[in-house]
Amino acid sequence: MNIHGKASKENTYDAIVVGSGISGGWAAKELTQQGLKVLLLERGRPVEHVTDYPTAQTPAWELKHRGRVTPFDRENYPLQGRNYNVNEANRHFYVNEKEHPYVQTRNDVFTWVRGYQVGGRSLTWGRHCYRWSDLDFEANAKEGIAVDWPIRYRDIAPWYSYVEKFTGISGSRENLPHLPDSEFLPPMELNCLEAHFKSQVTGHFGDRQVIPGRVANLTTPIEGRGVCQYRNLCDRGCPYGGYFSSNAATLPAAAQTGNLTLKPHSVVLRVLHDEAKGKASGVEVLDTQTMQTVTYHARVIFLNASTIATTMIMLQSVSGRFPAGLGNDSGELGHNLMTHPKTGAGGAFPGLTDKYYYGRKANGLYIPRFRNVGSKHPGYLRGFNYQGGATRNRKNPADFPGPGLGAEFKEFVGQPGAWSLSLSGFGEQLPYHDNQVRVSQTVRDVHGLPVAEIDFEWKDNELKMAEDMVASAREMLEAAGCTDIKEHYGVKALRTTAHEMGTARMGRDPRTSVLNPHNQVWGCPNVYVTDGACMTSNSCVNPSLTYMALTARACDHAVGQMKQRVI
């Protein structure tokens, strides 16, 4: 791909895509394959597939700190480190929080995980991929919450199929109406303790299923990408292409067209608006290597910088037509910030001491939502799922009866120890107007640019749900015979996930939403937003597959509009 090539005449392209993560990579692929000359702008550094994964093949004993979290990591990645094991093996794919801070005004519960590089968080994501259903798309309307989604499952189902065939999703067909099946590759099978857990949960709880996780890890090759090697080192980058990332999949496909120009180190400051034409004319960009600003122009612009970053661009895209930010006629831009509350429990399992498993599969078990599916739960709205898994640990060196040295000690610690089983619940948060993102008026990042100010809190519905998430995890672990069960963290320390969304929501009415049913900005039809900012609610399932499908759908719409000279 043309990383540093000269721009076309007067820095003008057919399309500009902002952000090279999961949704931005898809936008670049779809638009270039339709014949458009595309400029892909990435604020971070370049990362080439395979060659820029420096620790992908490094065993723990060759790392200076053996892959453990260091004081440096705790000092420079304190918030991201609450949710992820940020350490010397992967820290190069996470943003340094001293250089790129953000402000939290109400508390510090919100964790904003960022990766400023080509590929973004597609290099470190958890890879779980699930379709939404009309249980999700209809919930707001049925419950009178916020605004209705302007689409239903039938509108996006063919696009799910389209992106799944390219992405590669391993999973099992279950025929669950509220968790539709995908175009699956063979699943990563449950290990022996996970299978035991499945049988016990099925026997004790008639409303619950335990299935293999549905993940973007290949079990058969696709498009020149190799299968998962069962190393479970995905967050270091996969040189085999065994999991989906922009770097391994969509960006190479876009580059093959000859229509892609990729510019890293390019922070988009704002979208420029042509008052006479009533459309966006381009973007203003800061080159963080030269610290010079440059303007690029295009007929269509896709904002895929990630939820909060996209919203920050829109809030700062002030013009005569949009004095409060691009598309902000409704006053909803920046509001309705959502993520998934996360908690659960884990325990030890005393049996199966004669069993083990092959490799280290990058997946585990999944328990689909069972609350407020059919019958109504009296305590709260919506529901949650669990992602979890079973592992067999090494023996604890402290249990060795003699001194911690010598051949007998080495033999002891090299033997497998006890099994453990963990369940992490992911809940659906309701959209609240007062959970919002603003542009800080006082704090700047390393480049002197305003940072995000996040005003966020959990409310009663999420707190009641979290209590049930812990209690339900405990009762299932007990039913399976687990002991020494401990909750992950208390409700008072309820965690957020890396699934932030909702601050430029889709809707049916420009008076109450930012985007129309095709992901176009109301009042500025040649700007599309298809990352997490567009979401009207947040379900309880991982959102990335839905971002991909919405992006492919919006690209198809944009190309059609361009052919008709509407935009």
From TrEMBL:
> Which keywords does this Swiss-Prot/TrEMBL entry list?
FAD, Flavoprotein, Oxidoreductase
What InterPro entries does the annotation carry?
FAD/NAD-bd_sf (IPR036188), GMC_OxRdtase_N (IPR000172), GMC_OxRtase_C (IPR007867), P2Ox-like (IPR051473)
Q: Which cofactor does it need?
A: FAD
Pfam families, per this entry?
A: GMC_oxred_C, GMC_oxred_N, NAD_binding_8
- Which GO molecular function, any one, fits this protein according to its record? flavin adenine dinucleotide binding
Ranges of residues in domain Glucose-methanol-choline oxidoreductase N-terminal: 93-341
- Domain Glucose-methanol-choline oxidoreductase C-terminal stretches: 431-550
| Gene3D superfamilies in the cross-refs | FAD/NAD(P)-binding domain
The cross-references to PANTHER family, in alphabetical order and at most eight, read: PYRANOSE 2-OXIDASE
Q: Which family does it belong to?
A: Belongs to the GMC oxidoreductase family.
Q: Please state what the protein is called.
A: Glucose-methanol-choline (GMC) oxidoreductase:NAD binding site
